[in-house]
């Protein structure tokens, strides 16, 4: 998935290759802006993408340890 955030920061576009073509998802906020990730890494996990779309600050997120069944990560 390729992520594009507009200049004003109130619109985000996700470009994804589907099995037979590209799919484009657009979300525009009525109020506020999306956070632009400040880290130098260019990859986001699916969890980080979900948080970004929900308006959660990625820099201040702290993950708490949770139980995971053996073999799942």
Provide the fold topology.
Layout: E1 2-5, E2 11-18, E3 21-28, H1 46-54
Antiparallel strand pairs: 1-2, 2-3
Pfam families: TnpB_IS66
InterPro entries: Transposase_IS66_Orf2
Protein name: IS66 Orf2 family protein
The coarse overall form would be globular
Task: Please identify the oligomeric state.
Answer: single chain
* Beta-strand percentage range: 25-35%
For the biggest β-sheet, the strand order reads 1-2-3
Secondary structure: number of strands: 3
Q: Sheet with the most strands?
A: 3 strands, antiparallel
Report on this model:
- With 73 residues, the protein is α+β, with helices and mostly antiparallel strands.
- It has one domain.
- Helices cover 12% and strands 27% of the residues.
- The protein has 1 helix and 3 strands; from the N terminus they run E-E-E-H.
């Amino acid at each position: 998935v390729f992520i594009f955030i507009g200049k004003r920061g109130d619109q985000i576009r996700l470009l994804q290759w589907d099995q037979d073509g590209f799919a484009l998802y657009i979300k525009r906020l009525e109020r506020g802006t999306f956070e632009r990730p400040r880290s130098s890494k260019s990859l986001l996990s699916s969890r980080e993408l979900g948080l970004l779309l929900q308006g959660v600050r990625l820099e201040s997120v702290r993950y708490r340890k949770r139980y995971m069944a053996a073999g799942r990560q």
